[in-house]
Specification:
Layout lengths: L1 E4 L6 E2 L1 H14 L18 H8 L7 H18 L5 E2 L3 H10 L3 E9 H11 L6 E5 L10 H10 L16 E5 L2 H10 L3 E4 L6 H6 L5 E2 L5 H11 L12 H17 L4 H10 L11 H11 L9 H12 L12 H10 L4 H15 L5 H16 L12 H14 L2 H15 L3
Parallel strand pairs: 1-4, 1-6, 4-5, 6-7, 7-8
Antiparallel strand pairs: 2-3
Helix pairs in contact: 1-3, 2-3, 10-11, 10-14, 11-13, 11-14, 12-13, 13-14, 15-16, 15-18, 16-17
């Protein structure tokens, strides 16, 4: 697997050396300096942007930025390891990932020479690719740096942004919203760390799903991304990896709202449909068995937590007769209720086709119509447990469609015609 790390605020606490270098350059050019504790809100997007934010607002011209930079760079080159240190747990994490055979890379907006020097000083021989700000290459959040890393690792030629990554085997970790946007732009999974320069609440407000609070937690994410989520690729169209990722995202939101353990909710969501590799009818039971049999999870959770997680996995199909037993069961059951009307209709038709692969449209439509009424119409067996706004609105819209049969038939026929040759 390829694991891409941001540098400042993720691997290393570099804020003191950056602040002292910037203050030195500001003082040499006649500008006021700042307290070191003010610098975390100024970093990100490269040295020029750091200097721009540090300058008085009326002085933020390109000419002045370059004047300050001319003093910043030589000072920082000489002093960039004075106070900089790895965050607790980072060296152990990197050594573990390296021993496991993963490809490790750095993607930074710090200029290339400083990036290489600092990484090689603190982590000699660990990283396969080290990329920083380079002339002619746009900085993060442009995804080019991700494409360049992957092209280098796989010895593939690359032109602009044409490199297509196999996202199942790439993971990006960073501390900032710039990193979040970079991962989104590159279409690769992202994990945010809360120990860096951006407060956790800012990451949550920006819509970041997975946030970890200690480097050791990343090993679990690597395992989930590499060994668990790819199993969904073999399931039917309504239960592929994108479905699992959506359930994970919604579970994490609900876990925060309900003050539950986010990592437990994350793993429950990742395992909730794995039992589909055996059968559909009892897949929730099989999913719980798979979770309990996974020895890798025992290093992260207590036996009591694992039992709670097993029960929650089973409860993702909770009903009025069998309500969820814990808040975790309610979370995954609600998250699994992805009531986007069009998605529900398409998934229902897809499952009907799986049951009756040679059936004509009318057969598939009638089976799907019956299922939609039984599950989603008023009095249906599908229940919302936490009444998330997304699902309440989605259910109302879906019920409106169910009762508008001409429109429902049209949507199902459009899906049938579009997919019948696939």
């Amino acid at each position: 697997m390829t694991i891409i790390f941001d540098l400042d605020g993720t691997l290393l606490n570099t804020i003191d050396d950056l602040g002292y270098a910037c203050n030195y350059a500001l003082e040499r050019t006649g500008y006021p300096t700042h307290r070191i504790e003010e610098y975390p809100r100024m970093v990100g997007n490269g040295i020029n942007n750091l200097i721009r934010r540090a300058l008085p607002e009326a002085e933020r011209t390109e000419e002045n930025i370059l004047r300050v930079r001319a003093h910043f760079v030589p000072y920082y080159d000489a002093h960039n390891c004075d106070y900089t240190r790895p965050y607790d747990g980072i060296p152990d994490l990197l050594n573990t990932l390296k021993k496991q055979g993963h490809h490790l890379a750095v993607a930074s907006n710090k200029y290339q020479a400083a990036t290489e020097k600092i990484v090689n000083h603190f982590f000699p021989g660990i990283f396969d690719v080290i990329l920083g700000e380079r002339e002619g290459i746009e900085r993060k959040p442009n995804p080019q740096i991700v494409y360049d890393i992957l092209a280098h690792l796989h010895r593939e030629p690359i032109e602009n942004k044409s490199y297509i990554v196999h996202r199942s085997f790439v993971l990006y970790i960073g501390d900032s919203l710039v990193d979040f946007e970079t991962a989104k732009n590159a279409n690769v999974p992202f994990v945010a760390c809360s120990w860096g320069f951006v407060p956790r609440e800012k990451l949550v407000e920006a819509g970041v799903s997975r946030i970890i609070d200690h480097p050791a937690e990343l090993a679990l994410d690597v395992y989930i991304q590499q060994s668990i989520l790819p199993q969904y690729d073999a399931f039917d169209g309504g239960h592929r990896r994108d479905h699992a990722e959506t359930v994970i995202c919604e579970s994490l939101k609900l876990a925060r709202t309900n003050h539950a353990d986010e990592t437990m909710a994350y793993v429950i969501a990742a395992y909730h449909d794995l039992g589909l590799r055996f059968d559909r009818e009892k897949h929730h039971i099989h999913s719980g068995e798979i979770l309990m049999a996974d020895e890798n999870l025992r290093q992260y959770f207590t036996p009591e937590q694992l039992l709670t997680m097993r029960d929650a996995v089973e409860d993702h199909r909770a009903s009025g007769k069998n309500p969820p037993r814990t808040i975790y069961g309610a979370i995954v059951a609600e998250a699994d209720r992805q009531i986007d009307p069009l998605t529900v209709i398409h998934r229902t038709m897809a499952y009907s086709r799986k049951l009756f692969p040679d059936a004509d449209f009318e057969t598939l439509y009638q089976r799907s119509l019956n299922h939609l009424h039984e599950k989603y119409a008023e009095g249906g067996y599908m229940k919302l447990w936490l009444n998330s706004e997304r699902n309440v609105q989605g259910l109302a819209a879906l019920r409106s469609l169910i009762h508008d049969e001409p429109r429902l038939r049209t949507l199902c026929l459009e899906w049938f015609e579009k997919t019948k040759t696939l």
